[in-house]
Structures
1.
Amino acid sequence: MKKIEAIIRKSKFNEVRAALHEADIDFLSWWDVKGQGSARQGLIFRGIAYDVNAIDRIYISFVVRNINVEKSIDAILKAAYTGESGDGRIFVSSIEQSIRIRTGDHGDESLYDKDEDK
Amino acid sequence: MKRRLFKYITILLFASLTLPTAVIAQDSLAASTDSLQVAATTIVEKVTEEAPATLDSGNTAWMIVATVLVLMMTVPGLALFYGGLVRQKNVLSVIMQCLFITGVISILWIAFGYSWVFGTSFMESDNALGAIIGGWDKVFLCSLTLDTLTAGNIPEILFALFQCMFAVITPALIIGAFAERIKFSGYVVFIILWSIIVYNPMAHWVWGGGWLQEMGAIDFAGGTVVHINAGISALVMAVMLGRRKGYRTIGHPFTPHNIPFVFIGTALLWLGWFGFNAGSGLAADGLAANAFLVTHLATCVAAVVWMSLEWFLYKKPTIVGFCTGAVAGLVAITPAAGTVDVLGAFAIGGISALVCFFMVAYMKPKLKYDDSLDAFGVHGVGGIVGSILTGVFATQAITGTEGVQGALYGDWNQLWIQVVATGASVVYSAVLTFILFFIVNKTIGLRVSKEEEAVGLDISQHGEFAYSEDE
């Protein structure tokens, strides 16, 4: 089991979500976050132009079985890409254990629906 | 030490720049006394001829509406305009300051403010105080009945209420200068004293028969009394109170927390200003219609000019920019609304936007004072521009064949009078505000502690959140 986390542009969130749905990843959580990096955003206030590097981003997190890791990453890479500075990052980490609260299933079984999924 | 020195130098500079105008004021005052006496006698004759006056229901109906409109400018107009521009943690403090002013200044106005400004007992009895205030004869509006009529044949109690709304909005404009860092208790004392000591005498000078009015200064709806007065006090307060924490260190301006609030506030100000300007003639007549027209036109021109400047210079037209330009135009046309035509409105709107933009975008960052919401940059500067340009663009097409006209039409004297009136207002409100600041700051304190400022005035001063995160 791997946890996949991605920090992406706010404007790309819906595309990423649709791409993950295409890849059969339908369980995910996300947060609105602010981040700073090399990207800058131009703002204007009463005739004073300035730019800030604190920019709104979306932080996505979900856990998948090992067989799904590559296609999840591909989906995000494709959907979140613009080529400009500020596209974001993807992080992958190992998960020791996963338990579905309703059924008490442990491990891989907790991550997919036995009746529907392969 | 250095900072304090800088403050005193600024103030000294200010005084030395503006004092000569006050001295000159004395001379031209003497010169214009003759023409004024002639004018005064003709007015007296007119009044006696017209008696007995009957109430004009058309004028009265319009003035009731105009009074409502002017109240709407403070609450909720200005409260939303300023509230949207501050950061999230301070929005309630600004709303509270507007509400508080509406309540307490109204009480003071009915109690004795109206009498000080529009009373006549001191002038009639040749009391020396008559130069500053009107008298005690209308305390608690005691001598006014339902049948007491004033100019335009409207009930004087309605006139008193209309003027009450002006007394309310003037100190409310200053809030923009010290927003986000003022201590509420000190603010309460300062605002009450300011209204009594700064606003009342100046309103008396300009509208109540004081020396500025006698000199022939044109201030149709309050360019000197309301906007220059509040704007200059705002500058003094902003400089004396010091900058907000982080103002110079975060590297960019503090961002407005709710721009739709700014939009709604501007829309209400714009709407209310028609009562402010078109109501100031105290009648539902052609002059009111012209004031309405030029107010709207100047505002539109100023807003479009400001927006275009930002678009041209920074590639993006902003909502806050458009709104700020609109307010600058409204401020500048205020003293001129009763004397200029469409040409004047175009010019005053355009010039005020250019000058205010320059002050807000270039001079403020250069001089490094922290006028939080540009009360000086928009109201002070816009007021000065409008007041002086009134002496340029006043035309007999509006004021009548015997009326005043500006430098553009050959009468340079009127321009001179406008400059003197403007200079006198600047000096008076700067000096008095400085003294008031000093007194209140030494006794109660005007600035919150660093910690209170960091958590925001909503929590530290009022114990409330604007936007609770609880379910």
Note: Residues 16-42 of chain B have pLDDT under 50 and may be disordered.
2.
Amino acid sequence: MSTAPTGARTARDEQALHAALASRERPPRASTLSACLTFGWRGMLKVKHVPEQLVDVTITPVLFVLMFTYIFGGAISGSTGEYLEFLLPGIMVMSVLFTTVYSGVALNTDVTKGVVDRFRSLPIARSAPLVGAVLGDSVRYVLGAAVVIVVGMAIGFRPEAGVGGVVAAVALVVVFAFGLAWVFTTLGLLLRTPNAVMNAGFMAIFPLTFLSNVFVDPETLPAWLEAFVDVNPISHLVTASRGLMAGTATAGDIGYVLVSAAVLAAVFAPLTVRLYRSRS
Amino acid sequence: MTSQSTLAIEASGLRKAFGGTQAVDGVDLAVRAGSVYGILGPNGAGKTTTVRMLATLLRPDEGEARVLGHDIVDEADAVRSVVSLTGQLASVDEDLTGQENLVLIGRLLGFRRSQAKARAAELLEAFDLVDAAGRLAKHYSGGMRRRLDIAASIVVTPQLMFLDEPTTGLDPRSRNQVWDIVRTLVADGTTVLLCTQYLDEADQLADGIAVIDHGKVIAEGTPAQLKASVGSGALHVRLLDPEHRPEAERALSRALDVQVYLEPDPAALSVGCARPERAAEAIAELARAGVGVAGFSLGQPSLDEVFLALTGHPAEEADVSEEPIASEEEAT
């Protein structure tokens, strides 16, 4: 049976093992769709098991809602109530975009922990782990948006366009996040550690959200800065979300957002898949 | 001569370089179906890179290989559907429970949800993980992680399994469990390619062994042949006083008439010696020479001694890591 007295497996163990090995059943290969959905399910399980990660990314936006509304609101807009109407859609965008950095961090963690090797040795489409992970992250994106909206409502945010407007705004932000997440998954495969991905990711996304119209009307900025803010896709996303929540969105703003999301995905999704496939 | 159809792995001239380092430098392998084949070598010798090429995770720079009849480059997908890999890092998802890890792999292999759950339950039972099924894998001990990892590799029982250093870092109890699992797998018909740093492990499990150093196979044979070329056992002696080592060396070589190996420990020596009665004579010779002995044991030669015998130099770890994590080796 066993060669050593310690750790010897009992006959029962041995039988269970033989029984488990006796089954040589091989199911039909999983379809790419089914594999993607399974990876999506994995992403959701992680939200359930490691909720701290979601708290980490949403705490900053929530603090910003409170700080900016009560400290700067009166000075910027004349009243905290008016400023909140202006600020909240922008912070919702910020919260979701921060969460996209974690898509890259999660991928890098899989690489450094060796989980990717297991997935790559399975007979599934090589893009499935990536597409599935980004799909699963949509749950995180929606939760990130919801937290900010709930906090906003609690302190008096009342969107003109009602529930429909809010849902449309969240949907638009999530679509943009799908595009942006590929930038961070690319980064996730290029950098060495999850921490490096997190730092680089936030070093990019933090200034980009500040150099937009999240906090102030760009007309108050110096001309060179205003020019940058006007082309920043995040500004257009914020304008469109504000518009959707207030019932004044223009097709132009929404279109700009959808096109920039598509461009990001078209460039960075294939790049991510390529890097992933060719990993040593 | 074995006919082609009974070979699970046949590789010729496999080469792979990372940057300036030639990790694998022309490896040929012929592994019979249904056997355990050991690749023995120190860290950085090219074991992992060889396995990763055979498991289709890396594309060789040169050479070719067929795994269960499928070309590893042109028919990579076919290879993936009949092999499984248990890598050096226990590649379980730490943020999922043990049960979820197994269901995940089951679903990815094409089982329906209910089938995947049933298979997970069966494996948890077989690998003694039922009590830990609902705990996150990050809270598992090293031995439990390794068992979960192997369980994940046999959700669909593979025809060929790659095991890369399955017991490195495990305590003796967990190591014995893993060895028993491997024996059961093989008894039930799976071919195993085992990478290891321990001669002991290769001797326990493998039918054939290739010793690899600096990316090349430097010796090949059955464990018995290999041990015969090295000396099938070794007498390890520890002295009371390191000062006496030169005298001890002379006494031992006089008694056994073979080269004595001075171990890194300044008070220790070892010498090839298969039979207990010869070892007893050698110890008596030490006493006659007036050398105080703190302890002695008769055991397997270490990897170091195997390397000394085969290459004339002790096993040395490569000073560069075999696979820099960020190196993006273009595979196409």
Note: Chain B touches chain A through 68 residues (CB under 8 Å).
